[in-house]
Amino acid sequence: MPKTLAEKVYEAHVVRSTAGEPDLLYIDLHLVHEVTSPQAFDGLRAAGRTVRRPDLTMATEDHNVPTLDILSPIADPVSRAQIEALRRNAAEFGIRLAPMGDRDQGIVHVIGPQLGLTQPGMTIVCGDSHTSTHGAFGALAFGIGTSEVEHVLATQTLPQYKPRQMAVTVDGELPPGVSAKDIILAVIAQIGTNGAQGHVIEYRGSAIEALSMEARMTICNMSIEAGAKAGLIAPDRTTFDFLQGRPHAPQGADWDAAVEYWSTLRTDEGTVFDREVVLDATTLTPFVTWGTNPGQGLPIAGAVPDPADFADEGERRDVEQALAYMGLEPGTPLREIEVDTVFLGSCTNGRIEDLRVAAELLRGKRIDADTRMLVVPGSVGVKAQAEAEGLDRVFLDAGAEWRGAGCSMCLGMNPDQLKPGERSASTSNRNFQGRQGKGGRTHLVSPSVAAATALTGRLTAPADLENAGV
Amino acid sequence: MDAFTTHTGTAVPLRRSNVDTDQIIPAEYLKRITRTGFEDGLFIAWRTNEPDFVLNQPQYAAASILVAGPDFGTGSSREHANWALLDGGFRVVISSRFADIFRNNSTKAGLLTVVLPQEQVEALWAAVEADPATPVTVDLQAKQVTYGATTVPFEIDDYVRWRLLEGLDDVGLTERNLADVEAFEAGRPAWLPRALPVLEG
């Protein structure tokens, strides 16, 4: 029977399968950060258990870390205590940790691929819903809660049921100025925030095949925003070229054996998915969100919707609540929405390619005088690469702030937060109420829309800049 | 985890859909390194900013069953959301659709999630809005929700139900099959990555 890529990876990791029970699935890589792990380590200690495979486990500090003065002790005592707990746990259980200041430190979903730890065909978990990012390599990667973190630490396995299979096919060439972020925001707007519930999404089609690894990671990253268990893309030459030579990639004869296996990781001809969604890349335009969930998005040429246009009572109530929170009037053109802050970063769009795209638009220009722009590289490695290319100077000369690596304003667990009522254009993944700071209002955008918006102070597509005379 | 067999309590109608994990408990409340005490962050923004928010209404203060709109628990993998609900006195959440990770975390934390069709959710909302003191019984053994003269059956995976009824710890169950794990590990390709530091030079 023909199989999907996700089914192949899943079945290759089944340790035990018994009728009436979930399968026991082996986990090849467990990534750990400070927020969702302390209670799991406490659980191990209380039961007298050890970490079964410290060599398949890696920890980093990302959610709480300040992006200024990173070599000083963290000022917030509660954040500091959480970081210190991770350091103690990593030392006690023998786990490699990339702490603040380490050259390998960064957002957990940026450093895995950067180090070559993320490879095709693997199972990867982390106590973080954006673990789906790693699916860009053809890995089956998904977020788990703290009880499951404890289970993986103790046994290197997880009880699982095989998810249903969904295909999102995107064919055609993307128009200029339209990016991976616009593809995934369009997908989520189409199927809804929980539309892929119970499914793994495989992204396929010529538009996906043409994307770089960074762009593929952006798409897979936001699979969770469509409610999917995971999202993945079949590995190909682009994947292998990205991996070759990275610190943890196989070498020599091992590399050849790995590539031979990875090349088999494709959905078989004739496979029928449980659900299929098709998008035409040629019709896509820059996408922005107007509401308080990632499915509430529109092409930037659109206007804020009117609750009265929604027939369903629940939907109408949702739109009313979203607009009240966002401080928006129905019918307002999206391009007229003014922002206070632009955030470029996160596990969605904090990689080198994202910084290059934004820097290119900002080169030799100044951002709007009333707008602040935070540029937060996804990892120390991304920061070093950007500085080697002179991108830090481009951002600083444009009037943006160049910060240290971490999750930062994506969720505001560190000091990088919006103030009540402030509005952002953000390259992150969630526009939930209060996500970037209490009372903060978030519009999700691509890196190029973020840069164009920083120049004008209102939501702007790169193509608008010429008309605006910027 | 505590076993769950049957629970009777009052219910609170949360007429909102897409209740995401950041509304259940915002990120700033996730810094605690203990497993309890998360009730202080439960729905904190709505409790603070909306005086007539349903959980601020005294007639629902003692409710232990949360009846929410569709797509409850979307967003983050934070099990703190499930802990916050438990710490806040809830034993059951009813919705027509849950986000997968939230629902899965609930089975680990001992919070029962019950999926009912949206029209049944609406009927329950109407009943507890008409009389907030209406006792609602959620019987996991019989797989049914009962209030007044109404009984509604629900479906739940047999294995999950058994684990909840027994209050079993997954790690302990998996450890019975460690021989299978060892056999699997023996067959893994040698080139698969290890997270140990790579020495350069």
UniProtKB/TrEMBL annotation, chain A:
Required co-factors: [4Fe-4S] cluster
MF GO annotations: 3-isopropylmalate dehydratase activity; 4 iron, 4 sulfur cluster binding; metal ion binding
Top EC class for this record: lyase
EC number: 4.2.1.33
Pfam families listed in its UniProt record: Aconitase
Any one GO biological process: L-leucine biosynthetic process
Residues reported in the UniProt entry to bind [4Fe-4S] cluster: 347, 407, 410
InterPro entries the UniProt entry points to: 3-IsopropMal_deHydase_lsu (IPR004430), Acnase/IPM_dHydase_lsu_aba_1/3 (IPR015931), Acoase/IPM_deHydtase_lsu_aba (IPR001030), Aconitase_4Fe-4S_BS (IPR018136), Aconitase_4Fe-4S_dom (IPR036008), IPM_dehydratase_rel_enz (IPR050067), IPMI_cat (IPR033941)
SUPFAM superfamilies referenced in this protein's UniProt entry, alphabetically: Aconitase iron-sulfur domain
Region (Disordered): 415-444
Domain Aconitase/3-isopropylmalate dehydratase large subunit alpha/beta/alpha as annotated: residue spans: 7-457
Pathway, per record: Amino-acid biosynthesis; L-leucine biosynthesis; L-leucine from 3-methyl-2-oxobutanoate: step 2/4
Biased composition (Polar residues): 424-434
CDD domains: IPMI
Reactions performed catalytically: (2R,3S)-3-isopropylmalate = (2S)-2-isopropylmalate
Keywords attached to this entry: 4Fe-4S, Amino-acid biosynthesis, Branched-chain amino acid biosynthesis, Iron, Iron-sulfur, Leucine biosynthesis, Lyase, Metal-binding
Source species, domain of life: Bacteria
PROSITE patterns: ACONITASE_1 (PS00450), ACONITASE_2 (PS01244)
Record-stated family: Belongs to the aconitase/IPM isomerase family. LeuC type 1 subfamily.
HAMAP family noted in UniProt: LeuC_type1
Subunit structure: Heterodimer of LeuC and LeuD.
Annotated function: Catalyzes the isomerization between 2-isopropylmalate and 3-isopropylmalate, via the formation of 2-isopropylmaleate.
Protein name: 3-isopropylmalate dehydratase large subunit
Organism (species): Blastococcus haudaquaticus
Gene responsible for this protein: leuC
Automatic annotation (TrEMBL), chain B:
GO cellular component labels: 3-isopropylmalate dehydratase complex
Swiss-Prot/TrEMBL keywords: Amino-acid biosynthesis, Branched-chain amino acid biosynthesis, Leucine biosynthesis, Lyase
Residue ranges of every copy of the Aconitase A/isopropylmalate dehydratase small subunit swivel domain listed in the record: 1-119
Pathway connected to this protein: Amino-acid biosynthesis; L-leucine biosynthesis; L-leucine from 3-methyl-2-oxobutanoate: step 2/4
Short name of one Pfam family: Aconitase_C
EC number(s) reported in the record: 4.2.1.33
A single MF term (Gene Ontology): 3-isopropylmalate dehydratase activity
Catalytic activity: (2R,3S)-3-isopropylmalate = (2S)-2-isopropylmalate
GO terms under biological process: L-leucine biosynthetic process
Physiological role: Catalyzes the isomerization between 2-isopropylmalate and 3-isopropylmalate, via the formation of 2-isopropylmaleate.
Family that this chain belongs to: Belongs to the LeuD family. LeuD type 1 subfamily.
Subunit structure and binding partners: Heterodimer of LeuC and LeuD.
HAMAP family the record matches: LeuD_type1 (MF_01031)
Name of the protein described by the UniProt record: 3-isopropylmalate dehydratase small subunit
Species this chain originates from: Blastococcus haudaquaticus
